[in-house]
Write a structure and sequence with these properties.
about 160 residues; mainly alpha; Four Helix Bundle (Hemerythrin (Met), subunit A)
Length: about 160
Amino acid sequence: MITFFKIIIITIFFNMTLFAHCQIPCGIYSDAMQIIQIKEDLQTIEKSNTMIKKLSGKSDPQSLNQVNRWIFSKEEHAQNIQNIISQYFLTQRIKQSSANYENELITLHQLLVSIMKCKQNVSTENVKNSNKLLDSFSKYFFDEHGLKHLKDLDNLN
C-alpha cells in the first residue's frame, strides 16, 4: 500500500509531458489530400469574395449579418490554408534533401503572402494567383505518379 502511495506522489509531483515528434501523426494525412483541401478553401474564399461584394451595398440587418458571416468564412478558410502550409508542408514534408527544395520554399512563401492578401481584400486576382502558386508548388513537390494521383483526386470533386 505504501508503494502505491509513493507512485501516486511521484506521479503527481514529478510528471513530465511527452510530446510526439511531429504535430500530426505520420501517415494519417496524404499530401495530395492537403492540396485538395487548399483548393477547396480557395474556392470558398472566392465564393466569399463574390458574396461580400454582392451584399456590401445593402444595409438591412439580414444582409449585414450575411456579410459578417462571409467575411468570417473567408478568414477561416485563409487561415486553414496558412496552417496547412506552415504546420504540414513547411515543418514536416519539405526536406532539405529535395531536388526542388529552394523552389518549394519560395513558392510556399509566395503562397502564404498571397493568402494573406486574400484576407486583406476581396480581389479575385489574389485567389487566381494563389491557385497558380499552388499548381506550381504541386509540380515541384510531386513526382509524375503523385501528380497523376492528385489529378485523379481533383477529378472526384
